[in-house]
Design goal:
single chain, alpha/beta, FAD/NAD(P)-binding domain, five-stranded parallel β-sheet, 11 helices, globular
């Protein structure tokens, strides 16, 4: 079976590796001329680490990252709303630089299976085949085309024609620094809440600290027209340590500003020979840290469906049916959680603090377990 994967990000590379595990020989076509070390921190939660373990790259991920065992919620003055231990699993939760995760996946694949500088122009059917057509006037015929080309997917645009993703009212920033601070407990992810703003921080291995921030602002705000580091220092002035110290210690040119988008969940219709994976299908806001994890789960389930059924269209029907409900739930919960996190008025901020403080630990652990307990290699396909 000839398989073309469009997109060389975490989802596309995971799909390539999962498919090779099942005996297929997929090819990855990435529009960038090089897979550069860009991005910031990513958390690989147990539901994704199980897949990476099966794919043989969990060791490399663990080697490059920092383990997370606990989480806590604070207000901007440092008052602790909740401090809890993450549910114990047989695999660890690891936070690391996205480039380190991408690199671990890339090194596990044959170099000749990765094609760079290949921007998809579209696809066309040719009998029982589908032909991927690239901007450099080359093409590749295949039995299956997988769109793993992210939020602004070209494959999705042709398949569904459903327009642009939806802006959710707040921007985000991400950074990584070598600063370690006494105010940051080891093995702990911290989320700090204020009016219309949040700040998160956690270890990402080898003495590095990853952080992220959000603030309510219009989609129209020019992302390149101002000093992002200076803007963050102003937005979070007076907040609890070590926010100011972390932002100041991060090189200004490495701070990424990312607008927050998602899409309404949509059921795929089993289009002949073509499917979607990861953000190309179900882009989610980053509030649950599950975007990359969902793509990794998708990769495993899709590979298992193809191995089980052999027939492409039957396999796609099973894959798309099995993945819709779970990914749609994650998209919706992440959006709601983010909306609450961005509450801005003084009354809403007080209400949020009361809600966060009053959540019983068993309830929080139960919700996390629903996400973390999923095993993409055990679910029925």
């Amino acid at each position: 079976m000839r398989i073309v994967i469009v997109g060389g990000g975490i989802g596309g590379l995971s799909a390539a590796l999962a498919l090779r595990r099942e005996g297929f020989e997929p090819e990855v076509f990435e529009q960038a001329p090089a897979l550069l070390e860009v991005g910031a921190a990513i958390a690989v939660w147990p539901n994704a680490m199980r897949v990476l373990s099966k794919l043989g790259v969990a060791g490399a991920v663990f080697e490059h990252g920092g383990q997370l065992k606990r989480a806590r919620w604070l207000d901007s003055g440092g008052r602790v709303f909740k401090h809890f231990t993450l549910p114990e699993q047989e695999v660890a939760t690891v936070a690391l630089h996205r480039a380190d995760l991408q690199g671990a996946l890339l090194r596990a694949l044959p170099p000749e299976s990765i094609h760079l500088g290949k921007k998809l122009r579209g696809y066309a059917y040719a009998g029982e085949e589908v032909r991927a057509e690239f901007a450099d006037a080359t093409s590749r015929c295949c039995d299956l085309l997988i769109g793993a080309d992210g939020l602004h997917s070209h494959v999705r645009a042709q398949m569904l024609g459903d327009g642009p993703p939806v802006y959710r009212g707040y921007a985000g920033w991400r950074g990584i620094t070598s600063l370690e601070h006494a105010a940051m407990p080891p093995f702990t992810a911290t989320e700090i809440y204020g009016g219309g703003r949040r700040f998160g921080v956690g270890p990402v291995g080898h003495g590095r600290t990853g952080w992220w921030a959000t603030a309510n602002e219009s989609e129209a705000v020019e992302r390149d027209s101002q000093d992002q580091q200076g803007k963050l220092l102003r937005l979070f002035a007076g907040w609890v340590a070590p926010i100011k110290e972390l932002v100041a210690a991060t090189s200004a040119e490495s701070i990424l500003r990312v607008a927050t988008y998602d899409r309404a969940p949509v059921k795929l219709k089993g289009e002949k020979n073509v499917t979607l994976l990861g953000d190309a299908w179900h882009p989610t806001t980053p509030n649950l840290g599950q975007g990359g994890c969902m793509a990794i789960e998708d990769a495993a389930v899709l590979a298992r469906c193809l191995a089980k059924y052999g027939d492409v269209n039957r396999a796609l029907q099973s894959y798309e049916a099995r993945r819709y409900a779970r990914t749609a739930t994650v998209v919706r919960y992440s959006r709601r959680y983010g909306a609450i996190g961005q509450w801005q008025s003084a009354t809403a901020v007080r209400l949020r603090g009361t809600l966060l403080s009053s959540i019983p630990e068993r309830v929080g652990r139960s919700l996390l377990s629903w996400v973390f307990d999923y095993d993409a290699y055990e679910v029925n396909v």
